[in-house]
Design goal:
The chain is an alpha/beta fold and 447 residues long. It is built from 19 helices and 14 strands. Bound molecules: uridine-5'-diphosphate-xylopyranose. Uridine-5'-diphosphate-xylopyranose (UDX) binds next to helix 10.
């Protein structure tokens, strides 16, 4: 099928390239001329494993083209996806300016009946609103609207697209439903469940899925604090509850709190949506609070653990100390630092007088722009050299596999606060490293 994809950000580019890869003819549209020129040469503006190959192969097969000309693209196709950004506005609501502008442009460019699919994450009611915009500005033509949320994890997006758990589609007519079934026919043929529903439900599925997963993360982080306070072990606890199929093992890893471009934004937007609908979600409101309290609590924990390890009192222990932060991206395999723990923890440490050097293989540059007074590097040894303490924030494979028996000598003092539980506390104790992690007894799993 011939499809136009409006917006070549993270979601639009991955979806467009993957749809091309499974045989559709995709025209990716973006008003950013330099981005489109780079993409035409196969240059990918984001770090996403495997995406470069899918883009290159699809360009080579002729299935994927790029343009800045929205009108030409709309005229050439019957189905248009809107995958533009819906960033959080100052009040926490999603800013729908780009979605509405795209709808207006599509309506004006239409040369016949069109199916318009909303891929961007939008609050309930937006697809109907897009339908009204299309009708108003393109009154000579018939428009059908569909909602088709994405469930792509950054760092794993190509695989998530190619191997989905389910396809969710909300439609307003038989025509848009038939088009969506055609587009995803390959997956239905592989018995991937196809959830077909109305527009509102589809919009809400996206928010609820992210909110539920965010709640799991917030829950295990609270349990890890409780483990710290009681001598229990959160890793065993995760296993012990996760093996119950009703709970499931996924999303039960303690960490520095959820971050990224989706969970923080979507949980907040859902609480506002629920309040406005007079059906407040106390659970998700608590999840949002729990997550921001968690990261602040960890900031205090870092300072206290450092003070204890250095034999200082709790009054300003970080002044003039050099702290290496390993991992600046919100999780591994991405260069994204939106709502990353580093953007909260590094400023907290800097504010208390520390100098912070951050290491990340992909996100160093973005962090340098986003975090005042941080120094960054893509050379891990440079970060570790002379550090008074190390804080681990991201579970990159090369951070996970650090051999501390070798790297320890670079440190000025062997103090490590590991907020991803990447190392064994007993082994760290054997290396005489002052080691703190989340919800695990310092030495020995059993008493
Ligand atoms: C998420 C959803 O998973 C995806 O389906 C949706 O479409 C977009 O939002 P993403 O933001 O890429 O994807 O990250 P994800 O892998 O879901 O992790 C979200 C956050 O939770 C990260 O900060 C991660 O570090 C944290 N997390 C996740 C944990 O702390 N522990 C876990 O067990 C899982």
């Amino acid at each position: 099928m011939k499809i136009a994809m409006i917006g070549t950000g993270y979601v639009g580019l991955v979806t467009g390239a993957c749809l091309a890869h499974i045989g559709h003819e995709i025209i990716c549209v973006d008003h950013d001329q330099s981005k489109i020129s780079a993409l035409k040469n196969g240059e990918i503006p984001i770090y996403e494993p495997g995406l470069d190959k899918v883009v290159a192969d699809s360009i080579a097969s002729g299935n994927l083209t790029f343009t800045t000309e929205l009108t030409e693209a709309v005229e050439a196709v019957g189905t248009i996806f809107i995958a533009v950004g819906t960033p959080p506005a100052a009040d926490g609501r999603s800013d729908l300016t780009q979605v509405e502008a795209a709808a207006k442009q599509i309506a004006k460019a239409a040369n016949g009946s069109k199916i318009v699919v909303i891929k961007s994450t939008v609050p309930v009611g937006t697809c109907r609103r897009v339908g009204r915009i299309l009708g108003k500005h393109g009154e000579d033509h018939e428009f059908h609207v569909a909602s088709n949320p994405e469930f792509l994890r950054e760092g794993n997006a190509v695989d998530d697209f190619m191997n989905p758990d389910r396809i969710v589609v909300g439609t307003d007519s038989d025509k848009s439903e038939a088009a969506m079934r055609d587009i995803y026919q390959r997956f239905e043929a592989q018995d991937v469940p196809f959830v077909s529903t109305n527009l509102e439900t589809s919009e809400l599925i996206k928010y609820s899925a992210n909110a539920f997963l965010a709640a799991k993360v917030a829950f295990i982080n609270e349990m890890s604090n409780l483990c710290d306070a009681t001598g229990a072990n959160v890793e065993d606890l995760s296993l012990g509850i996760g093996l119950d199929e009703r709970i499931g093992k996924a999303f039960l890893k303690p960490g520095p709190g959820y971050g990224g471009s989706c969970f923080p934004k979507d949980t907040l937007a859902l609480t506002i949506l629920a309040q406005e609908a007079d059906a407040p979600s106390r659970i998700i409101e608590s999840v949002v609070d729990s997550n921001s309290n968690h990261i602040r609590r960890l900031g205090r924990k870092i300072a206290e653990f450092c003070a204890d390890s250095w034999g200082l009192d709790y009054q300003h222990p970080l002044i003039d100390k050099r702290i290496a932060v390993l991992g600046l991206a919100f999780k591994a395999n991405t260069d994204d630092i939106r709502s990353a723990a580093s953007t909260v923890i590094a400023p907290l440490l800097i504010k208390q007088g520390a100098s912070v050097i951050g290491y990340d293989p992909e996100a160093s540059e973005a962090a340098l722009d986003a975090i005042d007074h941080i120094e960054t590097t893509t050379d891990m040894d440079e970060a570790l050299e002379g550090a008074d303490a190390v804080v681990i924030l991201t579970e990159w494979e090369n951070i996970k596999s650090i051999d501390w028996s070798k790297k320890k000598k670079l440190l000025k003092s062997p103090v490590i606060i590991d907020l991803r539980n990447l190392f064994d506390p007993d082994q760290m104790a054997e290396l005489n490293i002052q080691y703190s992690s989340l919800g695990r007894p310092l030495t020995g799993n059993r008493r």
